[in-house]
Amino acid sequence: MGAAAVGATGPAPVRVLVVEDEHAIATEIARRLEAEGWRVTVASDGLSGVAANRAERPDAVVLDVMLPGIDGLEACRRMQAERPVPVLMLTARDDETDMLVGLGVGADDYMTKPFSMRELVARLKALLRRVERSHHAAGAGHGGPPAELGDLVIDHAQRRVRRGVDEVHLTPTEFDLLACLAERPRTVLTREQLLEQVWDWADASGTRTVDSHVKALRRKLGSDLIRTVHGVGYALEPTRPV
Ligand code: CA
Description:
This protein has 242 residues and is of the alpha/beta class.
């Protein structure tokens, strides 16, 4: 990807696009990510964010929801339509995250403001690792025939999912979450276990991310496939086609 930094001897630095209209927050995020040795581009409205994603081809995007011009939701849709890129979305409230998941904008992770910079970096690193891993899995062909669980078919090699005859498009995160649940069907996995295994990230404050992505999976695959065990976690319940 892209040109290496001047004088860099290692791999090209991670490149992150930050789309945030609040200057103070954008600057703080940029400063923190640059301290990781990453290269940061800042855009302050939705349309320039989409343009910067096209021009800079970043490894990940941090995208605020409330933006002038087109909002983060529409910006995310346009970015994903042009080239798939991992997106961490910044929301003002938890219920805003729920709304976005319901609309299926295709973000890979969500953080509610205010958040700590340490947490932002941890989440971005986990996101980048997950995307890297999924590229490796696709490249290495993660052998074996597709796994069939009732009417659900998970093709690890192609990272594709079908339910019945319908192919269902999932984001990398959604795919990994489904694959994790499908490894142990009918077994309840706690939010913490899922967070650690799918997100490589162990911090109770992130368990809402798990809930958001389960909602997204239900919206795409049907509400009967993943059972909620209240106060504990989730289990995948394979169902036979009728
Ligand atoms: Ca904003």
